[in-house]
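Tokens as discussed.
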């Protein structure tokens, strides 16, 4: 069980659960003036949504490790459990069982929402993760964009499906409709934040994993065009993200979100520090530290959702 939890990156799964829970209970519900599960998704529906996303993500981690056995033998010696404590065949079986379970939960969720076609979103996500591991990961920048897109999606799905659920609840829908525009803007801010910071982290991880990827022919951005140009791309993404954080601060100031404004100023300084360190990064250890710092930045961004529970525009 311990090895299985390591294989599926259980801390990352906890972050996903916390993110989706915070989005519903700390941002969406307070801004709409709703008590928990007063309208929109029911407890069962929300539970199925979270379980589906977590299972599909678990499957993505497993198949990714299966494909990365050779590069990880150099990039992360001893850390990839496939071929050691877990056989490759067992890992592939786990991938299919877990991914199919995630799709079934997503289909049941869509059925309970009276729109079975919504299950295509879960099929799309699982398919992207499979194609990422099999094909996109070996294409410069494409794999990075896929991971960043799916990261942002975990922030946006809760609001998307809450909106769909409320569209069948005429009285509640009419009551909270005036607040939809603000909630949508705020959700998009977090989707954009997750996308940008994940993309930056993925680009830094490619620089960190250059040796193994280069040896086994994984055509990541550093392998295809060199570490210098790849580092410049990462810096550009970082500066664009910094500009986005500063714009977000201006947006929060206009809404009179004092706590959020202060928190995002700290995030901007933190990202500025990461950019400063990225300019001088050369060794694997440098990029490894930066990867951990961007992960911490993401966690701090998620924690900012707490402010919505206490502040009103």
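Sequence:
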């Amino acid at each position: 069980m311990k090895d299985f939890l390591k294989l599926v990156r259980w801390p990352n799964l906890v972050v996903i659960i916390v993110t989706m829970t915070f989005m519903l209970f700390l941002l969406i519900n307070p801004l709409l003036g709703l008590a928990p599960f007063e309208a929109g998704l029911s407890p069962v529906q929300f539970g199925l949504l979270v379980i589906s996303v977590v299972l599909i993500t678990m499957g993505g981690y497993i198949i990714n490790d299966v494909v990365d056995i050779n590069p990880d033998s150099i990039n992360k010696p001893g850390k990839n459990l496939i071929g050691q404590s877990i056989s490759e065949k067992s890992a592939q079986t786990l991938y299919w069982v877990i991914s199919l379970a995630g799709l079934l939960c997503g289909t049941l969720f869509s059925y309970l929402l009276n729109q079975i076609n919504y299950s295509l979103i879960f099929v799309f996500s699982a398919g992207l993760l499979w194609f990422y591991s099999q094909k996109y990961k070996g294409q410069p920048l494409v794999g990075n964009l896929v991971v960043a897109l799916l990261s942002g999606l975990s922030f946006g799905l809760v609001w998307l499906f809450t909106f769909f659920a409320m569209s069948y609840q005429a009285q509640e829908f009419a009551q909270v409709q005036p607040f939809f525009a603000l909630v949508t803007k705020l959700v998009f801010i977090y989707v954009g934040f997750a996308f940008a910071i994940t993309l930056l982290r993925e680009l830094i991880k490619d620089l960190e994993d250059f040796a193994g990827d280069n040896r086994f022919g994984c055509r990541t951005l550093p392998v295809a065009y060199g570490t210098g140009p790849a580092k410049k791309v990462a810096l550009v993404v970082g500066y664009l993200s910094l500009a986005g954080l500063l714009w977000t601060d201006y947006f929060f100031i206009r809404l009179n979100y004092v706590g959020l404004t202060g928190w995002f100023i700290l995030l901007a300084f933190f990202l500025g520090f990461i950019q400063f360190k990225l300019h001088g990064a050369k060794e694997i250890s440098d990029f490894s530290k930066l990867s951990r710092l961007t992960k911490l930045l993401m966690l701090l961004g998620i924690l900012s959702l707490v402010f919505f529970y206490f502040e009103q525009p």
